[in-house]
Amino acid sequence: MIHYDQINNLPYEPRPAHDVSPRTLEALLGAVQAAANGKARAIAGGWGFSMAGTTEGTRIRTPGYSGLIEPDCLKPGVTSRPFDFDPIVPHETPGPVVRVLAGTTFGELNGLLGPLAVVNQPGFEDLTIGGVMMVGGHGSGIRRGNIASQVRSMDLIVVNAARQAQLVRIEAASDRITDRAAFEAKYPGALLQDADDAVFNAAKVSFGSMGVLLSVVIDTRPAYRLEEDRDLRSLWEDFEKLERQVREDSVSGVHLWINPYRVGADWKAVQSTYRRSLDMKRNERAWGIREADSPMTRKALRLVATKAPRLLPFALEYSLRTVDADDVVMQSPEALDFGPPNRLPVAASSCSIPADGLKEQLEQLLAHFKEGFGKTYVSSPIGLRWVKASDAYLAPQYGRDSVMIEVPVLNDTPHQQDTLERYVEFMVTKLGARPHWGQRLQLSPAQLRSIYGNEAVDTFIRVRRQLDPLAVFDNPLTRHLGL
Ligand SMILES: Cc1cc2nc3c(=O)[nH]c(=O)nc-3n(C[C@H](O)[C@H](O)[C@H](O)COP(=O)(O)OP(=O)(O)OC[C@H]3O[C@@H](n4cnc5c(N)ncnc54)[C@H](O)[C@@H]3O)c2cc1C
């Protein structure tokens, strides 16, 4: 009998029939071929809370392949695309493209890049490039897209109509970077798919439903530092200024952490503003961040959440006060990582809404939390991050500049599941929001079509049938949603 350990947040059911960890291209092709008569799914760190990473067939674990490899068969002169954030050094040129194995974590990637940096990254360095791009994951910055948007080319192992495992390199027709002759000579039997932007835009956010990602070519930029200013504020005081700051040239990104429950005259929030800095590293984050996952904090939070949840609004208000600190300069990987709060045991849901009209939508959401208080408990500040529109059909940011609103709820808090389910239901039905594929979510097929539109969903399905004609990469989520 095989015993399967829980992998981080990955849901436990259904259990896979087999677990494999290939480490070479040959082993990966072999693993996919061996699974081709049943079902298969790649899984990276298993940090995702959703059903997206589950399979009843063969689970192909990708952390076995991580690191940088030669970006091969490139056309001459391929470089990173200019990124649109260089207000301080306007003449700065983008870095070269690099090829990254899909199981590489952002922490490993940043270490390997040396004098370079990723264009953007999520708030947790243990997440993998393959896992985050596949769920439409993101960092922050209204002028920078989700993680998939920095990808130029992807190598996917599919099962073709002849039931053969096959390497397919996928690029946008409008941005071909691979030399066809060189590719065909190096990889006989492989396919270069670059006739159509649609295939690229569907596959790059497909939560493992089209094949197993081996590697991606991504843009880079020269390493840089950021200054972080965290200021406690009244939420609605000069909210328009905040929305202007989000779009300012000198601002690389803004995060807003809000106590969802009002204590006093106005809701309190902490605004973290990131600006490019040419100064040396200096100062450190406030103790509330540094001690966020200390045994004492964990104990205090659990005590309030389980024994006196009605005190949560006050506990959250206090926690916001402990993170206020200005003028902290860090290298970008450190600045963009949330740090110790990542280690708190939580389940989370996150949904995207259009960045336009944020105030009205946020007011409705806060009213929803107020109404539910007592039946549901949000036990952590809710996080808002702005992300540029995406061209990936099923990315939560598809076709619109978006604000992602994340609701983390501590484990062992009363009504954790209800709190998250009601949040997602409210966001989808009342605000037309799109849930993050790597967080807790529930969605009906009709809701999927209403929030993404028939054209996007149908194009995604067309591409999925093309890349996975025998439905080997089906799983409970794709079957439920009719994908
Ligand atoms: C502490 C914490 C912080 C987080 N911060 C952020 C954040 O800042 N921004 C954000 O957007 N999200 C964030 N998330 C959510 C995150 O995006 C998801 O957890 C996501 O699932 C990535 O985790 P992973 O790399 O372990 O991938 P997994 O959870 O293992 O996989 C995610 C999906 O990708 C697929 N997949 C993985 N590898 C491959 C591959 N090689 N080929 C094909 N499919 C593959 C899987 O099948 C699955 O559907 C956070 C999560 C946690 C726990």
Characteristic key phrases:
binds flavin-adenine dinucleotide; 23% strand; 6-stranded mixed sheet; Uridine Diphospho-n-acetylenolpyruvylglucosamine Reductase, domain 3; 483 residues; 8-stranded antiparallel sheet; alpha+beta; 2 domains; 19 strands; Vanillyl-alcohol Oxidase, Chain A, domain 3; single chain
What does this protein structure show overall?
The protein is of the alpha+beta class and 483 residues long. The protein has 2 domains: 1-223, Uridine Diphospho-n-acetylenolpyruvylglucosamine Reductase, domain 3; 225-442, Vanillyl-alcohol Oxidase, Chain A, domain 3 (3-Layer(aba) Sandwich). 29% of the residues lie in helices and 23% in strands. The chain is built from 15 helices and 19 strands. It has helices at 25-35, 106-113, 129-134, 180-186, 197-203, 239-246, 287-290, 295-307, 312-321, 332-336, 358-372, 416-431, 445-452, 454-467, 476-481, and strands spanning 18-20, 40-43, 58-61, 68-69, 98-101, 116-118, 151-159, 165-171, 191-193, 212-218, 220-222, 225-234, 251-258, 268-277, 325-331, 346-354, 382-387, 402-410, 434-435. It has an 8-stranded antiparallel sheet, sandwiched between helices. Strands 4-5-10-7-8-9 form a 6-stranded mixed sheet. It has a 3-stranded parallel sheet with strand order 1-3-2, with helices on one face. A hairpin with a 5-residue loop joins strand 7 and strand 8 (165-171). Helix 11 packs antiparallel against helix 12 (416-431). The longest helix has 16 residues, at 416-431. The two termini are 33 Å apart. 50% of the residues are buried. The model has no long low-confidence stretch (mean pLDDT 93).
